[in-house]
Structure formats: C-alpha cells, structure tokens
Design a protein that fits this description.
This protein has four helices and eight strands, in the order βαββαββββαβα. The protein has helices at about 110-115, 140-150, 205-210, 225-245, and strands at about 100-105, 120-125, 130-140, 155-160, 165-170, 185-190, 195-200, 215-220. The longest helix has 19 residues, at about 225-245.
C-alpha cells in the first residue's frame, strides 16, 4: 500500500530491499597496545612478542623490585663439638680430653698493624681439624701496654663456645729473660726423664712476620695426658709468646709505617 499525499512513496512487499555488501577496507595502522605494553590475547600482528623476549607483566602480576646487593656473607666460625660431661674433669676442660694438639693463632689487629701501637692480644685455639676449641682475650691497661710492651702485666681469659670463662692466666709485671728466642720449647717432667709436651712457633707468612707481631704456635702432648697439664701447656704457650715474640719495647713498634 502506497502512502497518499504530496509525498508518496511506492509500496514494498514483505521483503526489504537489497543493498550491496559492505566491503571492509584494511586499516593501514596496527591496533594500539594497551597502556602496559602487552598485546591483547591472541594478537598475532607485527608487534606480537617473539619467542625468547620478555614482555611487561600484566597489571595483575606483582612488580619485581631490585634487591640491594650487599657484601658477601662472612663464613661462620666452626666450633668443635661439645664433648660429654666428665665428672673427673674440671668444667670446661672436657674439650682437651679428645685432642692431642692445639693450634694457637693470634688474631691480627688492624690498628696495631697500621700504627704499631700495642693492643690487647686475642687468640683462636683450634684443633687439628681447624675447629675452634677456645677463644682467648687479653685484659690489660693501656698505659701498661704503652710503657712496658711485652713486659706488661696482664690477665688472659680463655672462653668456650658459649662465652663461659674456663681459665684465667695471670701474669705480673716482669722483664724478659732471653734475647735469642728458640722456636721449639719442650716441657719435661719434674725428674726430666720424659717429655710432657712441645710448644713450637709456626711460620705466619711474610706479611704478618714483617708488619705485625702476631704469631702462630702449635702445642703437642699425649692424648692420655691429664687435662690439667694440658691446660698448663696452653698457658705456657701464651707466656712464651709474650716473653720471646712480642715487641719488648713500649710504645709503637713501627707497624706498616716501617715500609716507608
């Protein structure tokens, strides 16, 4: 049925008129990426990520942060395993029942090595496997170290792995008795018929020997020796270090300044 009036139009049947199909012209520009730089899922265009290349994480992924890189961790000191308690042994000396030698390593003090001023001595006492058995520290006055040098009075405390004081070594103010030290000291019995133990100085390296007065010693004794005698040998070793291998004069002994 056609419309009546000045603006009439022809009538159509039940079917709509046919139009030519719409032709899609290809877009000359690639589709835009999302704000995070990751192409949409399934995108295979020229900007698709290639295998082996990393892409930015999606918004839901946690952002990775750079961790500050510090100095490498220092190796922890390995202590000797604590032996079982022994009722026939003074407390703390159980370690000496299972060893036949001790390595006494004096710790290098940086201030003393650079300036030459005498500082408090510290020692590591180790077994033949390099495990620390005890730790020894000197307790002395600054003026005593400055004026008297190796002749100073001191107290050395020997501690175990939990910080308990095992022994006190007390030395009063004295004077040196030998100007030509020997690198091997033997401890004999009262009747001088047998050798109880040996104390020997070990080479510490050219730098330590020239620039510092820190020394290394070895103590050897029979395995079945009384632990009290072993403790006496340990004290004798530290006394030998002070009497023969410490700088005898007071004040500074040169340190690294001797190189200039």
């Amino acid at each position: 049925m056609a419309a009546q009036g000045p603006y009439s139009y022809p009538a159509y049947g039940n079917t709509a008129p046919t139009y030519p199909p719409i032709q899609h012209v290809p877009d000359p520009y690639p589709p835009p990426l999302n704000p995070y730089g990751v192409p949409p899922a399934g995108y295979a265009g020229p900007y698709a990520p290639q295998p082996g290349y990393a892409v930015y994480p999606p918004p839901s992924a946690p952002m990775l942060t750079h961790q500050a890189v510090g100095p490498p961790p220092q190796p922890q000191v390995q202590w000797m395993q604590t032996p079982a308690p022994n009722s026939n042994c003074p407390p703390g000396l159980e370690y000496l029942t299972t060893i036949d030698q001790l390595l006494v390593h004096q710790i290098v003090e940086l201030v003393e090595a650079l300036t030459g001023f005498e500082t408090k001595n510290k020692y590591e006492l180790k077994n033949s496997l390099g495990q620390r058995v005890y730790y020894a520290v000197e307790d002395s006055e600054f003026c005593n170290r400055l004026c008297c040098g190796s002749n100073r009075a001191f107290v050395i405390k020997i501690l175990d792995n939990v910080g308990h004081i095992i022994m006190h070594l007390v030395r009063p103010l004295g004077c040196g008795s030998c100007c030509c030290p020997c690198c091997l000291h033997q401890v004999v019995s009262l009747d001088e018929s047998s050798i109880v133990g040996k104390i020997s100085k070990q080479w510490s390296g050219i730098i330590r020997e020239c620039l510092t007065d820190t020394d290394n010693f070895g103590i050897q004794f029979p395995m079945d020796l009384d632990v009290k005698i072993k403790a006496v040998l340990l004290g004798a070793c530290l006394l030998v270090d002070f009497m023969y291998f410490e700088k005898s004069s007071g004040g500074a002994h040169g340190g690294a300044w001797r190189m200039f």
